Amino acid sequence: MARYRLRKGVELGKLAAENDKVLLERAFVDQGHLDGLLDPENPKFLILGRTGSGKTALIERVKASVEHATSLNPEELSMQYLHNSQILKQLTQWGVNLEIFYKFLWRHVCILQLIRMRYEGAEDTSGILAQIHRLVSSSKRDAERSRAEAQRYLEEYGDEFWQTTDTRIKKLVDEVESKLTSDAKIDASLKAGFAKVGISAGQATDSTHKQVVETEVIERAQRIVSDYLIADLRKIIELLAKAGFDDPQRRYYIVIDDLDKNWMPDDDLYLSLLKSLLFTVYELNRTSPLRGIKVIVSIRENIYLRVFHKAGIHEPQREKWLDVQAKLLWSKDELVELVDKRFAEVLRTEYTQAAPTLKDILPPPKKKNDKDALDYIFERTFMRPRDILDYLNTCLRHVVEKSSVLTWSTLTQAEVEFSQRRLDSVIDEWKDSFFGLPAIFSIIRRLGTSFMLSDISDEDMEGMLISDRCNSCPWLRGLREAYLSNFLSMDTLKLELLKAVYLVGLVGYKHSDSMRIIFAFDKPIGNSPDFFDSTTFHVHRMFWSAFNFPISARASAGE
């Protein structure tokens, strides 16, 4: 039996970092990413991880570690103004590439935010402009035309320094729309398209229509969008690099988090904006002449995969982005350190000496060669802080109901509640890519804790494809339509299903000559048919209770 007794109400903190900032500050574990993110010369700027892996915690530590830092919240940017622009929708239907404009928009917002931080001592807009104009006049190496272009940009947008970011975005959209409609041919084509569906340019609608537009009109629209003040913005960046952001010791940081929240209802536009953001930040950090600045982005791994799934053939592939990633993968030692730090904080007033550690409170093995309690818990997590904190908090709630020590009975009782909650979390995390994931759960329950590709019957697949749940799942409907149209064979359909359940973490794989099961947080899955034929798939133990696998299955696994 464990030595330490625990009082009622003990909790290792909230599962979301933003809801527990005091404990987060005192019990932070740095995996080695912090220094790289804080160094403007270090290429790492992209915090990448699954839900609950500590992205927000790292962002909060970044902000707490520097003097000049500001956040850009996508929910406050009024990006829906882009979605509501009927003119931009028309251009998209014509095939005009708007990503150049999206990149300009992100860069414009970031530069204005940096200027605002750099000149925060000025009392008003005129004070900021006076300081920057002095820099303009003192930069002798600049050509007169460059100074004029930079000054024109500052005068055009100087009144925005104290405005909210959403106001800036609305102004940019209105301006580009005005430039488009001032071209007679473009305006006529736009009006013809609006008339066809019975709307005005100011109305937002999801209606689609076919419209034949002259190539000349499309090319003119593309030029307007592509050339929109880009040269002016480039000049102001060059100017600021020489006179405003020329001190590498005076650092400024912009952090962008919460990109997974519901700030853009149009999924295609959402992914285009995210891709434009990542490319813009990459360029600002790595190729812009500004010194001492860093823009840091935090994004969920499944959303990152969706962004690059849509990347064009001429764009850099995911491998090209490895140098900029701070990928959050936790070891057992790091997770134990995190838990021990939290125990030390929440129990520090109750013990005259050191507070108990995780090892101190866990029950010993029942027998000499039985499973260790710590390994038992880790096997039921994705090796993320949120998983282990959720499991232990659930155990602690069960402890105070019956006794003041944590036992093996407590671990198994808590698993029932924990397992279902984690399954619900996976469904929610991946709903953008695999909405309706429960449609395949009946197949998993029938197959059991482990299975091979050949164990999935055609009847399993056909039953799933005709189910009501399949009808409400876009990704499954797409597979069904491809199968019925003979674009996918039944075997390929099964492979696609296995890839999906592997990617979300429901199953891992193991070769006959392997000693361990590999999951998605370890490495990508293979693609060759031979890989699947020689592989056994194992349902992650986190979900065994949620799938109601019988006790006999757990006993056969050595538990």
Give an overview in words.
This protein has 26 helices and 8 strands. By secondary structure, the protein is an alpha/beta fold. It has 3 domains: 34-327, no CATH class; 330-429, no CATH class; 437-556, no CATH class. A 5-stranded parallel beta sheet has the order 2-3-4-1-5, sandwiched between helices. Strand 3, helix 13 and strand 4 form a beta-alpha-beta unit. Helix 18 (385-402) crosses helix 19. It is globular.
* Number of helices, counting only DSSP H or I runs of 4 residues or more: 26
Main pleated sheet: 5 strands, parallel
Total number of beta strands: 8
Structural class: alpha/beta
Rg calculated over all Cα atoms: 28 Å
Distance between the termini: 19 Å
Mean pLDDT: 81
Keywords summarizing the entry:
559 residues, three-stranded antiparallel beta sheet, single chain, 52% helix, 8 strands, 3 domains, alpha/beta
Concise summary:
By secondary structure, the protein is α/β, with parallel strands linked by helices. Helix content is 52%, strand content 7%. The protein has 26 helices and eight strands.
Tell me the layout of helices and strands.
Blueprint: H1 21-26, H2 34-38, E1 46-49, H3 55-65, E2 69-72, H4 80-83, H5 86-94, H6 99-118, H7 125-138, H8 144-157, H9 165-181, H10 184-197, H11 215-227, H12 230-243, E3 252-256, H13 267-286, E4 293-300, H14 301-309, E5 325-327, H15 332-346, H16 358-361, H17 373-378, H18 385-402, H19 408-429, H20 441-447, E6 450-452, H21 458-465, H22 468-471, H23 474-484, H24 490-503, E7 507-511, H25 529-533, E8 535-539, H26 551-556
Parallel strand pairs: 1-4, 1-5, 2-3, 3-4
Antiparallel strand pairs: 6-8, 7-8
Helix pairs in contact: 6-13, 7-8, 8-12, 13-14, 18-19
